[in-house]
Amino acid sequence: MRSILRKILKPSSCKAGFLFTIFLLALHPGIPVRRITAIDEFLISVDERMRDTMFKVRGPEPRPNASLLIVDIDEKSMGVFGQWPWPRNILAEIVRRLDACKPKVIGFDIVFAEPDRTSLYRALPPLAELAGRKEIDGEKWSQMPTEEQRAAAKRLFAELFGAERLPPDSALDHDLEFVETIRAAPRAVLGYFFQMDNDGLKDPNAPAVPYGAGVFVAKTPPGVTYKSPFKARGIVPYRPILNFPLLDEAAEDRCGCFNCGIRESGIVRRVPLIWEYEGSLYPALSLQMIRLAENEPQGLVMVDELGVDSIRFRNRDIPTDAIGRIYVNFRGPARTYDYISASDIHAGVFDASRVRDRYVLIGSSAGGLLDLRATPFDDGFPGVEIHATIIDNILCEDYITSPSWGFVAEILAMLASGWLLTATLTICRPLPGVFISLLALAGMFSISYFMMFEYYLLLNVAYPLLVGFAVMLAVTALNYFFEGRQRRYISSAFSRYLAPELVRQLAERPELLTLEGTQKELTVLFSDIRDFTAISEKMPARDLSIFLNEYLTPMTAIILERRGTVDKFIGDAIMAFWGAPLSEPAHATYACRAALAMAGCLAELQPRWQLRGLPTIR
Description:
Blueprint: H1 2-9, H2 13-24, H3 38-58, E1 68-72, H4 75-81, H5 88-100, E2 105-108, H6 124-130, H7 138-142, H8 146-161, H9 169-172, H10 174-183, E3 188-195, E4 216-219, H11 229-232, E5 239-241, H12 245-251, E6 255-257, E7 270-272, E8 274-277, E9 280-283, H13 285-293, E10 299-304, E11 307-312, E12 317-319, E13 325-327, E14 338-341, H14 342-347, E15 359-363, E16 372-373, E17 381-382, H15 383-396, H16 406-427, H17 430-454, H18 462-481, H19 483-494, H20 500-508, E18 523-527, H21 532-538, H22 541-561, E19 565-570, E20 573-578, H23 587-611
Parallel strand pairs: 1-14, 1-15, 2-3, 2-15, 3-6, 4-10
Antiparallel strand pairs: 3-5, 7-13, 8-9, 10-11, 11-12, 16-17, 18-20, 19-20
């Protein structure tokens, strides 16, 4: 019993590797008793980078969704219409031409927060000054409400140019023309975005919430009270940056948020589909476009104890993470989808079939407009194409999601990674063991890749890889201190008495050495010098020592070369045996060959000794 207990408690690299693996399980962020640390953030970023690499390994998908079109405010268009922002009558004409082609929906990845500065009525102050009308100056004008500015502009234009030449209101005010166009285009969806950080610009008199509150509502399972998963995680927008009020009123509930992330920095991978602001839920631009295109009156945000589970329409269920984000399944680098220059739309030089029954997004790929994002494929990816990709994901339903059993699978993968590598490194020699371990780690990466793109399942591979690397380093180091120390001891103790090959075998299998007696069949060799006493009496001690070394050294080498074990030297005698400590079936053969080789070696040494006047040995 004591011997069994000693074996169990005896330190070894294998036992340490198993225990170390269990200890490393506590690193997983899914363990409920711990908080997210800097190490977790680092590992999560490693995970994300590995998935970025997986996208690049997969490469672009050959056939992008043909139901998507991007109307691009590109360098060509800016060369035609000038720098951004353009007069709103230009945008109104683009919307009219698109709407005439009967697309499924039109979405703006743009916010129109300020009035159009190019409208004719904006020229009233300089015109009044030229006409000598001192009652209208710049300061008074800037304090007038927009409606009064328009009315004053119409009166002045009528006085200066005649009432019969007064243009319509929409010509005086490009914003009015744009508002009327949006109101007449039921397929148009406007964009806005949330300012997440406190910039000190929140207007207490601004609209409390964007238009469209109540179109998306939270629904919980029976008996579960709604608790905001957004507030619980600190995701509270500071303020919305909206379109000017008259435009938002024209769109009614046709507005969507186009933030590409909770914090607009880094690589875009997950994009929120739903936001909570001041107690109401608001959809992303892509989600709002899907709702309108599919004639859905309302969307349900399914919330349970863990947070958001999915967003549900009558015929569609969109899985998300706990805060309503979708992991974007990117199709390829920038310009994967169909693009048309905004200037071509305005000029009418395009094929209407490219617009009909398609999801149309209006945005910019121009670098100067600062709407380029980093994605796994591209560092200069247009933000508008991210929204197009999300719509594509929803239409194709190839969502990349984290499975409910992911935590259990990752814990088991961590255990398997640590224990298998421990066993491998314990059984194998260091170099093959490390090579096999690296192959195993590459296999984990391959499995994660396969699950991501064949089954669209998101598994954290960084934690199993961390366990694998940590265990590989720890067990390799412990092997050096435990097994390595034992092997060094064996090599040191037996290298003088055993052949190097036998020493290596003993070092690799130290269990063959035991203090318990064993019964084996051996071959034993005894060899000594005849009349050594008489020889030793005739030679000085120093000369005798040199003479014996010249004799014993080659004889010992012959025994070791033929897999023998030198048991002892007894003065001039040598005792050796074959068949222990390592078993050798041909022990007698090796012993006989050694004896014959020793006789032959002695015959070669005799002439040299005779020339030096040394005695003959028999």
